[in-house]
């Protein structure tokens, strides 16, 4: 009997450690991740999330699709929409909107929806804040009038 208890104790200890590690690796529902969300249906193609704007150091550098980035062009980086997609970005706080083209990608760990050129961020009125909540409406592949 003592050998049986000793064997159970010998195997139970590593099993408990493994169980604790497994529990610690599971996501906790109380942690809030800021990921882009879609509206009621995916077919409406409206997204909600956070927008930031490019730092000046990226001016003149190539974007992910090969275009040269300029702070004076109405472009943006977005990880969820294809290159060449025209979108209408609306600042939820003040209602201002701008139309931009997706031509770059954000770093995969960044949970923002879009990163706008400074001219677009200025038009939306959040340059002084750095980030803002936005509504993104997909227009399509053709440049709007």
Please tell me about this protein's structure.
- The chain has one domain: Barwin-like endoglucanases (Beta Barrel).
- It contains two helices and seven strands.
- The protein has helices spanning 2-25, 118-124, and strands at 37-38, 46-53, 75-78, 86-91, 97-104, 114-116, 132-140.
Q: How many DSSP helices?
A: 2
Approximate strand percentage: 25-35%
Stretches where pLDDT falls below 50 for ≥5 residues? 28-33, 39-43
Reported for the largest beta sheet, the result is: 6 strands, mixed, barrel
Distance between the amino and carboxyl termini: 85 Å
From the 3D coordinates, which CATH architecture would you assign? Beta Barrel
Order of helices and strands: HEEEEEEHE
Structural class: alpha+beta
Number of strands: 7
Q: Which range best describes the helical content: under 10%, 10-25%, 25-40%, 40-55%, 55-70% or over 70%?
A: 10-25%
CATH C-level class: Mainly Beta
CATH topology title: Barwin-like endoglucanases
Rg over CA atoms, rounded to whole Å, is 23 Å
Largest sheet strand order: 2-6-3-5-4-7
- Indicate how many domains the architecture comprises: 1
User: Based on the structure, what is the oligomeric state of the protein chains?
Assistant: single chain
Can you identify the CATH superfamily? Answer: RlpA-like domain
């Amino acid at each position: 009997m003592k050998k049986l208890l000793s064997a159970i104790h010998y195997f139970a200890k590593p099993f408990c450690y493994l169980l604790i590690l497994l529990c610690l690796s599971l996501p906790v529902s109380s942690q809030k991740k800021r990921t882009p969300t879609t509206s009621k249906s995916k077919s409406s193609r409206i997204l909600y999330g956070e927008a930031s704007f490019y730092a000046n150091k990226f001016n003149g550098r190539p974007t992910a699709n090969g275009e040269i980035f300029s702070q004076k062009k109405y472009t943006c980086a977005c990880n969820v929409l294809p290159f060449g997609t025209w979108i209408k970005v609306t600042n939820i706080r003040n209602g201002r909107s701008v139309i931009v083209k997706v031509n770059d990608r954000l770093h995969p760990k960044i949970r923002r929806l879009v990163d706008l050129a400074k001219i677009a961020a200025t038009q939306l009125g959040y340059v002084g804040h750095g980030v803002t909540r936005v509504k993104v409406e997909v227009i399509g592949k053709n440049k709007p009038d």
